[in-house]
Structure formats: structure tokens, C-alpha cells
Prior knowledge:
Chains A, B: This is Tryptophan synthase beta chain. The structure is a homodimer of 450-residue chains. With 450 residues, the first copy, chain A, is of the alpha/beta class. Chain A has a domain at 6-13 and 68-110 and 234-446: Rossmann fold, CATH 3.40.50.1100. Chain A has 19 helices and 15 strands. In chain A, strands 1-4-5-15-10-11-14 form a seven-stranded mixed β-sheet, sandwiched between helices. In chain A, strands 8-7-6-9 form a four-stranded parallel β-sheet, sandwiched between helices. Chain A has a two-stranded antiparallel sheet with strand order 2-3. The interface between A and B is large, with 47 and 47 residues.
Amino acid sequence: MAEQTKYVLDEKDLPTQWYNVIPDLPEPPPPPLHPGTREPVGPDDLAPLFPQALIAQEVTTDRYVDIPEEVREVYRLWRPSPLFRARRLEKALGTPARIYYKYEGVSPVGSHKPNTAVPQAFYNAAEGVTRLTTETGAGQWGSALAFACAQYGLECEVWQVRASYDQKPYRKLMMETFGATVHPSPSELTESGRAILKQHPDSTGSLGIAISEAVEQAAQDPDARYALGSVLNHVLLHQTVIGEEALKQFELAGDTPDVLVGCTGGGSNFGGLAFPFLREKLAGRMDPVIRAVEPAACPSLTRGRYAYDFGDTAGLTPLLKMHTLGHEFIPDPIHAGGLRYHGMSPLISHIYELGLIEAIAIGQQECFAAGVRFARSEGIIPAPEPTHALAACIQEALRCKETGEEKVILTALCGHAHLDLPAYGAYLAGDMVDDELSDAALEKSLATLP
Amino acid sequence: MAEQTKYVLDEKDLPTQWYNVIPDLPEPPPPPLHPGTREPVGPDDLAPLFPQALIAQEVTTDRYVDIPEEVREVYRLWRPSPLFRARRLEKALGTPARIYYKYEGVSPVGSHKPNTAVPQAFYNAAEGVTRLTTETGAGQWGSALAFACAQYGLECEVWQVRASYDQKPYRKLMMETFGATVHPSPSELTESGRAILKQHPDSTGSLGIAISEAVEQAAQDPDARYALGSVLNHVLLHQTVIGEEALKQFELAGDTPDVLVGCTGGGSNFGGLAFPFLREKLAGRMDPVIRAVEPAACPSLTRGRYAYDFGDTAGLTPLLKMHTLGHEFIPDPIHAGGLRYHGMSPLISHIYELGLIEAIAIGQQECFAAGVRFARSEGIIPAPEPTHALAACIQEALRCKETGEEKVILTALCGHAHLDLPAYGAYLAGDMVDDELSDAALEKSLATLP
């Protein structure tokens, strides 16, 4: 009998509930604060930005939240996603480790982002919202929301970080094909954008600035709301379909992970895979090491400060307790645009402080080397973001080769690189550099914490 | 119970044999001829270009050919591919038709091409070949062969039509990521290329020219062979895994197609899906209408002549009896680069002459309109090539809406458009034109038939 390569679930195995890790933690994460009063924000503070259903999910203490059938209908376009056993990579490495990867690149836009874009669009449409605004960096999130809005008849308006807007025209074209309107950020359309452009007419933008613009626009239009692609509790909640499916797939494989690795930008891909496994760990049913991997150029967990900070550059959002490099921090223009965020999901930060997960940082050249190695053995060219997880996976697999340990490694492969191929071109041409964040630059940025 | 969206097979349902339609036809197709003697070519004539195993498959009269386990191992990276029921498109069209699509975009390079690239690389490696040469237009085939060569340790050298090389840099980067070397064609590296450049220094190339260059290089190097991505019998043979899987999936769905539509360039995607259904039709087990869809700008089946012609521009290949627009024909630069070939698979041509399949031609604007409609309802942005099949599918579905017929339509969705998004950009910007092939241009081209 041939060795099985992938573990595919039937549509009837699509999860019916999202998992909320908060009630299973020894203590809840610190609440977001109003920047003026420094008091916890209430639902009313968030109402101009989010529909009631999502605000309720943001603060829920229920362990499980039902997935509406209208959302599952759209999930079925690509879910359940496959779990692969990376047999060809194992052979190429000569490792006794067993490597698995959960692949989210099968979604319409090529990443895990639609897992939350779809319910966000659904709940907004259900409450009569007609237009969603958002930011996007590399463009995965903007594409996902554009796709989701097309499913429920919503307008979608995206502020895309100028650097990506110019360098990655394919992402913009994908958003437009799904019917969205895309603006480069900073733009002249918002006060936040105009303020930045006045100071820096050539600004290439940042996620923090783009968030300010999208938030500002949503707050001014009673029929519009804002959608965020990572960081918040309800976003991570929606992403847990990844981990719930992976647990069922490990049952099919008759295996249990010893190490789980995922890349972290805002934290949603990592949390989506890791939280259901963390539940099993907290319940004593398995004991995987859970490891977040971040870029050396934007190391919020490993070098940031755990403090209250704004989620955006202009300071329009509530204060979030998180590992942050400072909300004015603008990371080097590394190719993993989805990991260039100054902060970390407050929930992931809290769990990291509790000692339930580890974190490491890796430079982008090692990551792209891992990406090429993976592409040539497994066929999938990984997006720049998950090459960080793959680099960590290969580190672990090579340690096993030395020690002879047959560890089981589970890797979050959150997307493909079809629209990021110029980054591979730069790597193959030897034009890529590793920009280490200097202590001085970090201290300067942290000095701006509110 | 929720309505099922996709029909997914287990790895154990991966076909173990390819299907050869020839012995089931009322008469065999006319043989390829040596251009000098006009006698049928023998295996020795083909030995400088292809390994023995593929030459044997080219002329086999066996109904089934076993798929080597080493090939199935690689197929498992993405196969079996899903069959989708396009429920959201049906709703958007308001049609009583039931629309299914077999999606090949889940492969590592995003199309059906690896189905034959993998066995071609395998058989070459097994016979000691160390280097494969090929041509590519839009780049799907070149990417597929680059991926396949990486699996078996072969060097891969690709001549890419200059127009695509310049306009679609992402495809070149994908080939290079898989380890291939890519040259623009016409190139200074071959006699064929130099001859063209002497006459037309600014030539943007054609598939016919690129084939000449790749063939010439392979013929000069005893360790090298040539690989072709469509047209030939063994290529269509390998693609029948698509149709065999689809038959099993229709059993799961409890349905039977009344109409099958697929786009035709060289014919391999179409034949791959259609031949197993044609077998069932010839055996009287079902009776689908089978319809080939080609671009109005390159209409070999609907307006070409059924005659012996060269497969390449320089006249290095055997003469093939096929529907051809003339081997010197250079089609308008439409966006479906994979359909810009002057001829048609001799096997498809023969089957068309036997009256077993229909053919229609559609202009690219209608095709892209269908592509956008499909993307916004089903999530997948189809490659320019299969938008032709989708346009034909929508024509049929709208006819059903008028007549009230509940026809079952099966569509070959052979790939996604991630690396072709600028074509959608041109369509959305209103910059796309439909260039109809004039009778005068066609007559002029046909006058060059050998």
C-alpha cells in the first residue's frame, strides 16, 4: 500500500463551531482601554466600527461559537483544507522527523484570511451594513475581504500600503476582479492620510497608517463598518477552523504533534492552528511545544515590550495590551509584508506571557532558502510569511537528524507565493539582505509608547 | 442537510491507469509523416527527441496504460483534484441547469499541465536522460516541466515566447524557483532562433518558433530530450486522469453530464476530461454532447484546414494531420496564451472529423466577462484559457433558463489566473479588444501549407 501524502476531510467534517481559548486559560487577557479615560472600552465604543455580532464575539466567554450555515456554505468552496505529510521534504532533509503541514493556500485568494473575512462580511451584511473598509499590506487580507464582500453583496474599499500597491500590482488586480475599490495609503482621502503626506510626501506607508485611514472612513459613514484581518479576538476565533480540522486529520493519520510552528504577524494564522492544540495541551491530552516564528526585522514577541499601545499609527484605536515595537515603528521593507506589524494579537501576547508558547525570530534569507527547498520537494511555493514557519520546521527537523529523534512537527502553511514571486526573484538573484533591527532604533520607537 | 459543494476523492481513488481512446474509435487517426519521404515516421525517427517509453505510448493500441507508482507518488501532491458543483454560479445566473466544474488549478503550478510533465520527466530520467528542453507560451507548461524535473533530478531548459517572457515575469520566476533555466524565444542560442531574429530583429516570438528552438537543442545533445506539453497522443493519454476521476465523482454526485465543455489550444486539457466520457458515450452508457471551445482569434477547429502540416514554425517536426491555420500563422496577442497554437491535436482533429465532438469559437471579451462572473460567485479567478469553457457553459446555462431544461453541464476548469491577473486588469479597464481573424489573413497563412 502506497504511503499517504494528504489527509482530506469530507464536507461533513467541516467544523460547526469556532473555538474560543479564553475560558480555558488560567486567567483572561487584559482588556482594551479607552485612550482618554484608560478605562476598559465597552461595546458602545466599538459600535461605530463593528457590527454587534462581532463585538459580542470579541468579548464572549463561551468556549464555542456556532458557525452560521450561510458562512459554512461559503467555507465549502475550499474547506476543509488538506493536511499534508511532507514525505518528499523529509527525504530531501534526511530527517527521521515526521513533518506535516496544514495548507491554507487552497482558498480563493491563496491564504487563511477568508476564514475570517467571510464571517465578518456575513455579520455586517446581516446587520444592514452596505460597505466595509479595511487596510491591507501585502494584499492577502484585502483580497480576502474583497472576495467575501462579493459573496454577500457588500461594497469593499481597501487602503493598501503604498509600497505594496506599487510593488505588487497583481494583488490590486485580484481585489478589483472581486469588485473592490483600492486606494494607495497614505491617501488624500482621509485626514490621517493627508497628515502623513504633509509631513512625508513620499511616504510608502505602513499597516498602522492604512488602518488609521480605513478606521477614519468607517467611523464617518453610518452605513459603513471597518474590518480587521488579524490581532483581535474575534479574528483569531474564526481562524480556529484550521486547528479543529487539523486535529481530526491527525486522528486519521494516527499521529500526534510534538512541535507546532507557525509564523506570527498579527497572530491570526498562528492562533488559528495553535489554539485547538493548546486546548488539548491544557487538558493534558497531548503535550506539543508551540512555537511562534517572527521576522528578525519585526520581532514584536521576542524583542518588543509588553505594554498598552495603539493598534494604528494615528492613535485612533483603543489601547491594546500587547507585545509592541511602538505604534510609530515602521519595519524594514522585508518581503513578508503580512508580518510587518508593530504589535501582536493581545491574546497571543497574553498566552506568551503565561509561558504557554515559545517564540523565535529568523532572518529572511534563511526563510527564503527554506521556501525554495520546500518548493522543489513539495511543489508548493510558500508565501514569504510561512517561509518563517518552514525555516523553523527545517531547524527542528535537522536537530532530529542529529539526535535521531522521530519528532512529529506540524507546520502552519498559511498561503502560497503566486503573487509574491518577485521576492523569490530577489532571493535567487542574491539581491536579498537581512536587516537586523538595531537596539537604538528599537529604543527610539518604544519611547513613543502612550 | 447542507447541499454538497465539492466531490473529493481519497488518494486510494487515484487512477492506476491512463485511458487510450484510439482502440475505441471506429478508425485510427492518420499517422504522422516524414516531411521528406511523406512515409509514416517510425520509432527511430523520434528517438532523438523522446525516450522509448513515451514513443511506445505514442503509438500504443492498448486501451489502458499503467501509471508507474513513482508517478502516482508525485500526483498525490495534488490529485485527485476536486469536482465542484457551481451552486453559487447557478444562483447568480438563475438557471435550472446543474453546473459542475473539474478544477485542475490545485496543482503546484496551477493547471492540468503537471499531469503529463510528471510522467514525461519520470520516463526520461528512468532512461538516463539528464536534461529536458521545451517551449512555453503563457508559461503553464514550462512551469509544470520545471516542477516535474525538480522531482526526478533533471535539468530543465525552457524557451519562452518573447511576448510572454516580457509581459509575464512571474511565470519565469516560478520556473526559476523550481530550478529551471529560461530563455526568451527567439534566442541567439539556436539556428532557428537566429534565422528568425535575422529577418525580424524585434520578433515577439510564437509557440511554433519556440518549439523549433527546443527541438533543435534536444536533437544536438545525446543526453537531452525534448518534452511537449500538448498535441501528441501520449500527452493526451496522461491527461485522462482528469476524466477518469470526474467519472467517479459524478457517481458520488449521482448525476450524469448532458453537455461537456472544454477549451482547446493543443487539445490536452479538453481531451483529458473528454476522452473517458467519450468512451462511455461510445459504449452507450451515457450520451453527453462534447463541445470544444476555441478563441475566435485562433480558431483551428472551426476555421482551419484538416491537412498535413508541421507542428513548429521552422519545419523540424514530422507532418501531422490536423486542423491547422498554417504553421507560419502567428495569432493576435490575445491573453489566453495557452490557446495561441496554429494547429490542433491530430487525435482531437480526427475525432472531430468523425463527428463525435462539436466545436465553437468565442471572442475574448465574452470570455473575460464570464471569468469575472465566475470569480465573484465561485471565488476562483479562472485562467484566460478556461474562461472560454466558462463562456460556453454560461451560454448553455442561459439557454436552459429560457427553455426550462435542467441540463447537467460539466466544465473543464484547467487552471487559475494568479499569474495572468494583468489580463483581468485590461478587461476591467476596458482596454481589451476582440480581434476577429480575417478571411484574407487565413487564406494567406493556409497558402504556406507543405
